[in-house]
Amino acid sequence: MKKLSDRDLVAREYATVDRLAMRRLDRTAWLGGDDDPWLLALAAIAEVRPTSVLDAG
After folding, report:
1. Residue 2 covered by a domain
2. Once rounded to an integer, what is the mean pLDDT over residues 4-29?
3. Who is most buried in 1, 24, 35, 57, counting CB within 10 A?
4. Is residue 40 in a domain?
5. What does the H/E/C string look like for 4-56?
6. Would you place residue 39 in the very low, low, confident or very high pLDDT band (cuts 50, 70, 90)?
C-alpha cells in the first residue's frame, strides 16, 4: 500500500481534477439516488440563511 508521503503518488493524485473527481465519487457513490450530496448540503445551509459560513476544507 502506498503512502501519502510517496511524492510520486501525491503528484499523480493531484496532477489533474480527474483524479479528484474519482476520489469524490469513491466517497459519495454509496449515497445513491439522483441528489448530489454537495448540493443538498448547500441547500440546507441556504435554508437557515446564516450570516457567515466557515469553509474549513
Report:
1. no
2. 80
3. 24
4. yes
5. CCCHHHHHHHCCCHHHHHHHHHHHHHHHCCCCCHHHHHHHHHHHHCCCCCCCC
6. confident
| pLDDT score at 48 | 92
- Range of the structural domain that residue 43 is part of: 7-48
- pLDDT higher than 80, residue 17: yes
| Residue appearing with cell numbers 493524485 | 13
List Cβ neighbours of 31 (8 Å cut-off, separation of 6 or more).
37
Residue 32 grid coordinates: 445513491
Q: Is residue 30 part of a domain?
A: yes
User: For residue 46, is pLDDT > 70?
Assistant: yes
Look at the chain and report how many structural domains it folds into: 1
